[in-house]
Amino acid sequence: MPELPEIETTKRGVAPRLLNQFISKTLVRQEKLRVPVNHDIDHLCKGKQIIDVTRRAKYLIIHLTEGYLFIHLGMSGHIRFVSPETPAGKHDHIDLVLENNMILRYNDPRRFGLWLYIKDAPSEHPLLSHLGPEPLTDEFNSDYLFKRAQNKTQPIKSFIMDNKIVVGVGNIYAAESLFLAGINPLSPAGSITLEKIISLTNHIKDTLALAIKAGGTTLRDFYAADGKPGYFSNELKIYGRQNNPCYLCETIILSTTIGGRNSAFCPNCQPN
DNA sequence: CTCAGATCCTGTGCGC
DNA sequence: TGCGCACAGGATCTGA
Q1: What is the pLDDT of residues A61-72, one digit of tens each?
Q2: Is the CB of A158 under 7 A from strand B?
């Protein structure tokens, strides 16, 4: 489900209702996630106040009076507020119960996500410490990207999806940005000209910012915390459009596999 | 070091 | 209608 815009949309949806609240209970129905949930997470969170809600890469970070709660939604997760009487359904793995009785409920069929309580500074944690810059900050710019790309033979698409290079660029937005920049996703990262890297950098930023504005991309099952779908799927120009004509030149869009992920591209608009 | 591929898990949608 | 298969928005590990 989620890429960075979906996480950001989720964060904006849940933050106002979490802020300043006290946690009364953390109910874990399924602890086997990408990383097992702390066995004593209920004890660790109980009675603590939520003092901030932030995002780093695709992690939501709930700041408590002591420690932090990391939430990652993996490929199929979502969190929503439900009232106390709402019965838990299939794959409703965790409830964060607040003292006002509202429940932040986490559902994740594939269980690639995680919930983790950590005590020390998030940026030092092994899950976050190696991460590259946020795409919407000035730290992520064309000079940086060009430098990092030098001598890389890796396909440019895998390169921009590498969290050590830049975080938050998933399969959808990688495909969209490369199309808009006119770059073939298979081209070796080190072979891309500075001009194209400048264009790519700008399109990554623009695409993500637009998608956040639209409330994320709803393909099948993404709904923001308020239950509203995202509207960015209407804007997708290349992702999932293989075998259809390109919107710009009507050439039939091709697809290939890069890093195990399906990758659509227009052979005419993205020649190299 | 770099990179392709396998892996964790369940649901969906397609062709037969 | 039912079955089997391919594939899905992420991230990490292994091994060539």
Answers
A1: 999 999 999 999
A2: yes
